[in-house]
Write a structure and sequence with these properties.
Structural class: alpha/beta
Mean pLDDT: 78
Number of strands: 6
Number of helices: 4
Strand order of the largest sheet: 1-2-3-4-5-6
Distance between the termini: 43 Å
Low-confidence stretches: 1-35
Largest sheet: 6 strands, mixed
């Protein structure tokens, strides 16, 4: 119940900040709002520091379409490696190519943030999951569904130039668990 109240409060604060940001000089340049995260991050822990680095990297993209709904940092049973799973909810974008590009940008950004975080965890895999609102063609109901998933293992990103991350074409990379929903494959 407290989480729901906190989510409502954060939504109200975001709405107020967007309303206030619209006031004032109409001639100023418009900037996109930063990504919002609905998760609570405890930055006093190693896990929280890693989560915050990822959240900050996604916010720096300034797409205005992204909201992180979950960042999991899960150690293997043996404790010798860690998997990072990040779920991002996207606002609906009409152009499938633009939405797919945004998912790939998020994948590269999240991988860079995790693998260069300086975290004490030995990160084995970083998975980005993108969800968006889709309408069921049978019943007309909307729901949040996974439209994209991409896992970048540590051995794949070894030697990557993180300073030029935008130049990495994920279509040419051997990731794991790659899923692209048919809605993103429309021409």
């Amino acid at each position: 119940m407290k989480i729901k109240a906190l989510t409502i409060l954060l939504s109200a604060l975001l709405a107020c900040s967007l309303l206030v940001s619209g006031c004032g000089d109409d001639k100023k340049q418009e900037s996109k709002p930063a990504a919002v995260t609905s998760i609570k991050i405890d930055t006093s822990t190693d896990e929280g520091k890693l989560q915050q680095k990822i959240a900050d990297a996604v916010a720096a993209l300034k797409t205005g379409h992204d909201s992180i709904s979950e960042i999991q940092v899960a150690q293997s049973l043996s404790g010798d490696s860690t998997n990072v799973n990040v779920t991002v909810d996207l606002a609906h974008i009409d152009d499938p190519k633009i939405m797919l590009q945004e998912c790939m940008d998020l994948t590269r950004t999240i991988a860079k943030a995790a693998y260069t975080s300086g975290s004490p965890y030995k990160i084995a895999n970083v998975t980005t999951i993108c969800r968006t609102s889709l309408t069921d063609t049978k019943n007309g109901k909307e729901s949040m569904d996974k439209v994209y998933s991409y896992t970048l293992p540590a051995e794949t990103v070894k030697g990557w130039n993180w300073d030029n991350i935008a130049a990495i074409n994920l279509a040419n990379v051997q990731g794991k668990g790659i899923f692209v929903h048919p809605v993103l494959q429309k021409k």
